[in-house]
Design brief:
By secondary structure, this protein is α/β, with parallel strands linked by helices. The chain folds into two domains: 221 residues, Spore Coat Polysaccharide Biosynthesis Protein SpsA, Chain A; 158 residues, no CATH class. It is 58% helix and 11% strand. The protein is built from 14 helices and nine strands. The protein has a seven-stranded mixed beta sheet, sandwiched between helices. Strands 8-9 form a two-stranded antiparallel sheet. The longest helix is centred in the last third of the chain and has 39 residues. The protein starts with a strand and ends with a helix.
Length: 385
């Protein structure tokens, strides 16, 4: 079978007949070997019977949620290609030619773009149309370097095999973001075609919750893009901290009526430690994802791996730790030679703070290197079983 038209369903008895009729009309007109599949998410309004009466096949999704219903439907689909869309009559299942054409040409994922195809009055709340969708779509393009103008369009087509390889797991509305993000990270062929959006035919409020689901989409994008969540902030904090050390190690710095001294040096230490930790975490996340096969290895990780290994991380960490230890011992010896007399905090802390910073970063580097080595070994071991 070439095509499955998949509709996730939760109490859509009112609109399913229209959606199924449009889908069957397209199938008949196109002469394509296809099925209409409804993935029911626990409807209590008789949606299952309505779908079957109008010629659709029905599967039950035991876990609640938009993503859970789609995952169950994708698993049960018989078609080589799948076109999914909401069963609320907001999308036109009678106009799927461009989706099928792109899939036949080799596309792995074909996204609909409602902004290019046309949004009817009242079909999308103004907050979603002019703020939510444009902002989240811009972030998606920026984070994942994919030229998609409507990141969260519910009408999309894809190769079943290509999407199954991504291992999609999100049970909620963030499933839509997970699909595009993982497809982009895996290097899939992603295309976009215009589609329309009409006011839905429901007689109840939509399942979508603006702020809750918007936050879930944003959080998912951040977690799948450690470059923006960890790497860039980490590098920036590290640079700020090191510049602060360079300015303040020799003595106080005065800008007009503002003086920076050892108290500012302490914040520079915190910025350096936190920045190094975030940078290390970004590298570990991407390295683990690449080693495990979840995503292709990014270019910056490949370049870093030429110079960074478990052994190199341990050597660098131990070197920093030893330097911090020797510096600390030297400070204690100076204190002893002075008869353990009261110390001048401004002078002493100017050396104590960088010494302690070296100790912390050294231990942190060693721990990160060992963690990377252990995870890589565990993954290789599991693959050979």
């Amino acid at each position: 079978m070439e095509l499955t038209i998949l509709m996730p369903c939760l109490n859509e008895a009112r609109t399913l007949p229209t959606c199924i009729a449009k889908a069957r009309s397209y199938i008949g007109r196109a002469g394509i070997d296809a099925e209409v599949l409804v993935s029911d998410n626990g409807s209590t309004d008789g949606s299952q019977q309505v779908a079957q009466q109008h010629g659709a096949r029905v599967v039950h999704a035991p876990e609640r949620g938009y993503g859970a219903a789609l995952i169950a439907g994708i698993d049960a689909a018989r078609g080589r290609f799948i076109i999914m869309g909401d069963g609320d009559d907001s999308y036109d299942f009678n106009r799927l030619e461009e989706f099928v054409a792109a899939l036949r040409e080799g596309a792995d994922l074909v996204m609909g773009n409602r902004f290019k195809g046309g949004i009817a009055p009242g079909a999308m709340p103004p907050l979603h149309r002019y703020l939510g969708n444009p902002v989240l779509s811009w972030l998606g393009r920026t984070f994942f370097r994919v030229d998609i103008g409507d990141f969260h369009c519910g009408l999309r087509g894809f190769s079943r095999d290509a999407i199954l390889k991504l291992g999609l797991v999100s049970p909620g509305m963030e499933f839509a973001t997970e699909m595009v993000a993982k497809a982009a990270l895996a290097g899939c062929d992603i295309r976009e075609v215009p589609t329309t959006l009409q006011p839905d035919g429901r007689d109840r409020p939509p399942h979508l919750r603006t702020w809750r689901d918007g936050w879930r989409h944003l959080l998912f994008m951040l977690l799948f893009s450690p470059r923006w969540l960890f790497l860039i902030p980490g590098v920036a904090l590290t640079q700020i901290g090191l510049l602060g050390f360079a300015w303040l190690m020799s003595g106080p710095v005065v800008f007009g009526h503002v003086g920076l001294d050892v108290h500012s040096l302490l914040y520079c230490s915190a910025a350096t430690i936190l920045g190094m930790q975030l940078t290390q975490f970004a590298f570990l996340v991407k390295w683990i994802a690449a080693v495990s096969g979840i995503v292709k290895e990014p270019l910056w990780v490949a370049r870093a791996r030429r110079f960074v290994s478990v052994e190199a991380g341990l050597i660098a960490g131990l070197a920093l730790f030893l330097m911090g230890t020797m510096w600390s011992i030297d400070l204690v010896m100076d204190w002893r030679n002075g008869g353990y007399s009261p110390l001048n905090p401004q002078n002493v802390m100017r050396s104590v703070i960088p010494a302690v910073t070296m100790l912390v970063i050294g231990i942190q580097a060693c721990a990160g290197a060992l963690l990377a080595g252990a995870l890589q070994l565990a993954w290789k071991t599991s693959n050979h079983r």
